[in-house]
Amino acid sequence: MATTSIFKNLPSNFTISEDKSHAVLSVPIEQSDNDDRSYKLIRLSNELEALLIHDANTDKSSASLDVNVGYFCDPESLSGLAHFCEHLLFMGTEKYPKENEYLDYLSQHNGNANAFTSTNDTNYHFGVGPEFLEGALDRFAQFFIAPLFDPNCVDREICAVDSENNKNLQLDGWRLYQLEKSLSNSKHPYSRFGTGNLETLKENPIKQGLNIRDELLKFHEKYYSANIMKLVVLGKESLDQLTQWVIEKFSAIKNKNVPIPTFDGHPLTENELLKQVFAKPVKDNRSLKIKFPFPDLSSLYRFMPERYLSHLIGHEGSGSLFTLLKKKGWVNSLGAYYQGDIGFGFFIVSIDLTESGLANYEDVVVHIFQYIEMLKQVGIQEWTYHEIKKIREISFRFREKYAPTGYTTNLSMMMQKPYPREWILSTSLIREFDSKLINELLDLLRHDNFVLRLSSQSFTGLDQKEKWYGTEYKVEPLSDKLIQALKNITTHSELKLPEINEFIPTDFETYKKEISTPAKRPDIIKDTQISRLWYKKDDTFWVPKANIYVLLNSPLAYATPLYHVKTRLYSELIKDALNEYLYNAQMAGVYYGISYRPQGLSLSISGYNDKLPVLLEKVVNKMKNLKVDPERFSLIKEKVQRSYKNFLLNSPSQHSEYYLDYLTIDRLWLNEEKLEALESIKYEDIEIFYAKLLDQLYIEILIHGNILKDNAIKISQKIEEILQPKALLPSQSIRSRSIMIPKGKKFTYQRDVFDSDNVNSAVEYYIQICDFKNRELRIRSNIMSKLAHEPCFDQLRTKEQLGYLVSSGLRLESGSTGLRIRVQSIKDTVHLENRIENFLYGLQKIIEDMSEQEYQTRVQALIDRKLEKPKNLSQETSRHWGQIKN
């Protein structure tokens, strides 16, 4: 079709509007049968592409803008510049110069905002009350039109970036990821440090005679161009209205005709391959990771050949690699996945090892290659591919809504990829089978085409330290023994393809009837001394899914530290015993979970209702008739023991929250008490204990979804029939309680940070306000929490730069209500406490100075948040269950 000069790069399936302000995708956008929203994809004259979403029922509007530039484009001498740009961009614009104008506007109108920087994306997004979308969009757009990059904010935001980096310094996920990057091809930007810190953004530029703000302006001018931006806007307004707003507010973004950044080479070259890296983590974890260099597969979206490999190598059912390694006692978990970026990719096999697995890590590697060899010998199975395809089609067909901000963020990033625009909502679907493509990838899983990384605290003789995080490591060639074993690889008799997945649902009938007003809450349809059944037929979402939540109330579960630990071990053993059988169920969209809590054991079964009763019966039967395997018990006990020890290495902010819970909530135990109790427990103790645990129960059940009332009653009867518990005595009923702090009293609980290498401290400042039953004070506390939230962040984080982690909010416990403020910082706790109290002393004036209109606006925002509806069936179930279990 003919195009004008301003639409010179316009694809043929776009039509230019009459006023030449934009072009519209002229083919329908494929969407789920379950999606009641309407969509329109446009391209502005500056080449910015925007997806507009009309959702008449949304109670939160949102927008996300993704810029196709990330830290791969940092100048080599200025690590973290893209990330710093993301931070400073928020600090005022020519039209809205007040530095917290945007966040304050959102806070007033039930909104929130965030941003992040990755390898090749910088993403900005917000959510806001639907009536205030236009004002939010106007403020948002100005960040990309005329940001101030206020010189007065530069040093503060460098501190914010540095504080964010400090938060990550002792986190193994960040440390090991950076180690992999630092050891990759130094000529590729993958090897860079992307976060930035005080050294890279302040000290080094000064040494080089550079003005960091000037460098930032150059970076922004070079890369922040409309033609590599993707925008998604979701609102209640009509598509025409959303189109008009986007044209009005975003057309002024400059199009600098920036080419999408590309990078030569691959992070893994011959120089990096066939090496083994030994690294020492902060926490006591043992892991093995094999990384194969792969190409960028983004253009193969029709076929997704990598899904075939990840599905089979990562399988956990009978005949799988995981099952063989688990049988040998070598692994706790295993994952296989493709990780792609612009111009390159990796195929990764990641394993959490046991102590024995670490000692036999070369044999673990051999088994991985034996499985790969088996796949090569049996050939590509088209039925397996179509099974994966079918599961994805069912998932897409019944896809439910989720939080608007997450939805717009994901879509704006997806729009940067080369999908046909009409498939932008259905990128999860596999379209075609091509065995040749799968074989080509399978051929890349070779013995001479990988790098091996191992991590364990037991490693000694580590002679090197990674520059940015200080991780100790050493690099060696693979052993001759391992290389020879891989060259002569054969198959293993126990490694086989998975069987046909019997859990894939086939019955999608929804028992739908006309409902004028959905019921607000579930009804009690059965109430005995043994159990109470809450039931609500889905009358809102109309999907062939259901959720069954069961709480087995037992006074034994958390009665002592010893019983607490036994309850945890019991739940872990059940999950371990069920894993192989139920893996296929989870692949097919039917999930289960077992957790432990002060009231007892909690069981959840959710997903397509077609298979739920079968799954539930299997799980409850296993709970009743668990045979504890001594070898599995030893491995799980050791894993639980490590988790308790590793807790000591959590961040100070996590610890401060935990200890506040411990001090104020009944029936919680200290980590050291649980560790001590664990020592003496033997496998025989668990069988004796769980028989007692299940002997006397009060069972609380919620069944919500596409299940008829009679069937719900049958399900509850089946649970009782299997468990056959006696009723609890009235004196044994469990009530959650919290400690009431005497009025006018102040208490300080102080713990040293266990990890001497962690530079952070934290304060959790809690003001208990009233008994939970005091409705009037509880409501006032809620309002005060809302009024304090944005000023607290602005003062303690933005202005005073105490630390990256600053949060405040209402704290609701079973018996009490209060206000909490949490700060993690490199500054000492006395200073943090003083600054928090200084803010609280000034809060009264902030509220007093607030106009009546602003006060009412913020109160209305709180009301709007309270009235937000669940976005999907699981959210509604969780809301009801939260009320029931507490």
Automatic annotation (TrEMBL):
Residues 213-390 form the Peptidase M16 C-terminal domain. Residues 51-185 form the Peptidase M16 N-terminal domain. One of its GO terms (biological process) is peptide catabolic process. Residues 396-677 form the Peptidase M16 middle/third domain. It comes from the Eukaryota. Belongs to the peptidase M16 family. It comes from Rhizophagus irregularis. GO terms for cellular component: cytosol; mitochondrion. Residues 784-881 form the Coenzyme PQQ synthesis protein F-like C-terminal lobe domain. One of its GO terms (molecular function) is metalloendopeptidase activity. Coiled coil: none annotated. Pfam families: Peptidase_M16, Peptidase_M16_C, Peptidase_M16_M, PqqF-like_C_4. InterPro entries: Metalloenz_LuxS/M16, Pept_M16_N, Pept_M16_Zn_BS, Peptidase_M16, Peptidase_M16_C, Peptidase_M16_M, PqqF-like_C_4. This is Ste23p. Keywords: Hydrolase, Metal-binding, Metalloprotease, Protease, Zinc.
